[in-house]
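During the reporting period the student researcher (J.K.) took over the structure-prediction task from the postdoctoral fellow and processed the backlog of single-chain submissions. One of the processed entries is reproduced below for the supervisory committee.
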Amino acid sequence: MEVTHTDIPKSMTLQEVCEELHKVFESDEVNIEYVQELLENYKSNPADWKKYAKFDRYRYTRNLVDDGNGKFNIMLLCWGPSNVSTIHDHADAHCFMKGLAGTLNEVRFEWPKEEGEENEEGMVETERNILKTNGVCYINDSLGLHRVENPSHSDGAVSLHLYCPPYSSCSMFDERTGKRTKCPVTFWSKFGKKCETRKS
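J.K. obtained the following structure tokens:
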């Protein structure tokens, strides 16, 4: 049964967005259009999210904001100048991405050929999208794979990501060969506090 929702307020804090998402995900039916509209209606306000925005000098960071009672999660990704992700899938989850600061490029790819088949051309790019502040995009595995990159060599960028359901690993793909590698999904911080790094 699909849950109906009242009109979305035009002015919401990030906390209010999270509270509304908890209501949305009480149902087993996910209304993708409503979630996208909710994220679009939230206007980026650094006062809401700066405590979660943790940058690393060498790589982009994934910072957990809300664990969604196990049904979804929301995180801030912080991109230093020229940071780029690998090409990756989303482990059969819905993925929403909203720009909070700066500009990001999203590059989408076809799934590579089956293992054993020749793949001399490497991964096939299908489209490029620019994610600006307050823009929202959506992807799932049926739409392909993607890579996200900060094109600026001097400025950072911040994006809000919602995954439903959450996942602990995904697949990365080599752009030249299409070779697939499983990769654990980790957080740089949770709820504003840096995660402890394990010593081997």
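The committee noted the following: The chain has three helices and 13 strands.
J.K. will present the remaining backlog at the next meeting.
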